[in-house]
Amino acid sequence: MAVKEDRLAFRMTADQKRVIKRAAELTGRDVTEFSIQVLTERAEEVLAEQRVFGANARQWSAFVSLLDEPARPVAELVELLRRPSVFED
């Protein structure tokens, strides 16, 4: 386990603190543990949404060519689509 040496401090309203404290209690964690977990999870989500994948002209052209090719049939998918829909009576 990594040694926790860094600190992060911020101000909040009394209502925000009350909500966070209650949520922490409901999850069986203290406010610090709860806050670290929630902040880290949300930060990872934001970072994942912002990832950019670069490609040079040759790579991009190859990628577009693959997208332009006709789709190959997948036997399991063909079978699934032949079944009656579970959303219809």
Description:
This protein has 89 residues and is mostly helical. It has one domain. The chain is 58% helix and 0% strand. Helix 1 crosses helix 2 (31-49).
Structural class: mainly alpha
What's the helix count? 4
The total tally of domains equals 1
- Strand runs, count: 0
Rg of Cα set: 24 Å
The oligomeric state is single chain
Determine the N-to-C terminus distance: 54 Å
Order of helices and strands: HHHH
Helix content: 55-70%
SSE diagram, text form:
Elements: H1 14-26, H2 31-49, H3 57-68, H4 75-82
Key descriptive features of the protein:
89 residues, mainly alpha, 4 helices, flat
Can you summarize this structure?
The chain contains 4 helices and no strands. The protein has helices at 14-26, 31-49, 57-68, 75-82.
